[in-house]
Amino acid sequence: MMEINISKDVLILGTGTAAVEAARAVVASGYNAVVVGRNEVQVPDGAEIISNANLSDLAGVAGDFRATIVRDGEPLERGFGAVVVAPEYENQPLNAGYGLALSDKVVTQSWMENFLDTDQGKKTLSSDKGATIAFVTGFAQEGCPDTTRRVLTSALAVQALENCRAYIYAGNVKVADKGLERLFTKGRHNGVVCFKPGDMPEITDNNNSLKILAKDPVIREEIALEPDYIVVEEGLQPGPEEKETAAILRIDTDLQGFLPSNNVHRFPANSNRDGIYVAASAAQAANAALQVKAFIGDGVKEVAEDRAVVDENKCVICLTCYRCCPHGAIFWKNGAAVISPLACQGCGICASECPMDAIQIGEFRDEDLKQEVSAAVEDAKQEDLSIVAFCCQNSALEAGQAAMDFGAEFPKGFRMVKVPCAGKVEVEFITNALVQGADGVIVAACHEGNCKAERGNMYAKWRVGEIRQRLEAMGLDKEKVAFITVASNMADDFHGKVSAFADRIKA
After folding, report:
1. Share of the chain above pLDDT 70, in %
2. Staple 456 to which of 373, 409, 421, 474, CB 3.0 to 4.6 Å?
3. Sign of CA dihedral 427, 429, 435, 438
4. Topology (CATH) of 304-361
């Protein structure tokens, strides 16, 4: 083991509410927070603000990041132990999803919020005649707690005005956030009417004469409403700055460009790089700060020296490992690649992709894995059918062990070989198993999008595809090698796929 010193300075990117809340939580944890963004905001005592600035580069690794911040055209270099990204997404009106055009009477959620913040707006709504305002949400997109909070807050503000009535038409009311159920109950007690029709309500706009027709699932009748205003929901959209920041930090987004990626191993605040966390909303800022605290601790962390080791005599700095590392753990120094034992998560993708075999993973060295495969094949050969399965320790291994614990009957010659990630399974491991006498080889990985190493399952799938092509080209049965995906809680599915593979190669 070795001790690594970690900087207690934390970089927070963004100047929105989430960034300020993250700074407050980071300072409360005893660390220095530096907030960087476009706007001048009030940060808590103990935090520093660098406004009118942006991040132009991030070098180094977790615990020792080196950031280049550009302020008014002048670069400033600072060191940080961790980074919190607080993205400021843009609101996009979803009126088209309701077949409506924005007008004086069909307005966005943001417009109504701003209108209610002014004395003139309140006066206009609470005139002698008053106003009936209908909020429509959860039909043009799947609802979320942030949207629910905005709608409920505005509806309560409308209901509090003299002669005003607020109605909500919701596809789904998401209240899984602090205080939202209480806010919803308060709305009902104060007279806000909430309809939850099964289908999108029929909305017509005839020269600003508005009408909403919806079937109430409670009384099972259609109810017509002619509001003075219709407030349509908004969807979030990542802006170009957020995409650029993600590229600079080398962290993955989801398919729509939001942070973090939709990976079950990353929720609620982790990115694919240790030391970089995401506060996607003010409510999630505390989660990001907790991850920062767990990572930095007291500024000293003990890690294994041999988590990943580079043989300097073999390394030719081809940068293959740097490009394929999903965790940003690799840099180079003194003519060779260097892997940070703090940032490395031990997936083994770099070791498998290295063309010079210059990298070894401490717990899963190549020689040890080869010996384990040989032993598994030799043991399985005593049975009628021998199958070796390389099982990712994060998914397939747990599913296989659970299936055995539940009493599932596997082929007697079935053996599992533990690997840190399917991305560590090299072509040589598979071919060696076949040469030594295995009747079949399975590489069992996580489902796409759920790999802890982000893309380890993709590398494994490519290698299995390559071997199958080789076997077919040599006139051999390519069905002797299979690639499957399974989650850690899918014991029955794992057993079914192994059994189907065994039946196929016996035929």
Report:
1. 100
2. 421
3. negative
4. Alpha-Beta Plaits (3.30.70)
